[in-house]
Amino acid sequence: xxxxxxxxxxxxxxxxxxxxxxxxxxxxxxxxxxxxxxxxxxxxxxxxxxxxxxxxxxxxxxxxxxxxxxxxxxxxxxxxxxxxxxxxxxxxxxxxxxxxxxxxxxxxxxxxxxxx
Length: 116
Known about the structure:
Blueprint: H1 17-26, E1 28-32, E2 35-41, E3 48-53, H2 60-77, E4 85-91, H3 98-111
Parallel strand pairs: 3-4
Antiparallel strand pairs: 1-2, 2-4
């Protein structure tokens, strides 16, 4: 039985501002209450992600917590995603639990047709 890698290395993160701008400029948009997903194709073998929290959170602590939770949901579900895509998740206030974030993210990924 093959063990799934559940880490989130730097190679799976979109880090350059120009790449993030490309995702927002050319990517398809999918939304639900609390989260927006932008998807753009890439020429790499796998999918990469970036998490952006809007400034309307009550403070930096809540904003960073939302990003941490979203990264954890991504890390646990990334093996189900169709490769060759760059994804940008825009997080809005309104959910506090791992279960709510997981439900929202999986809903958006299903809307985008990215889940195997």
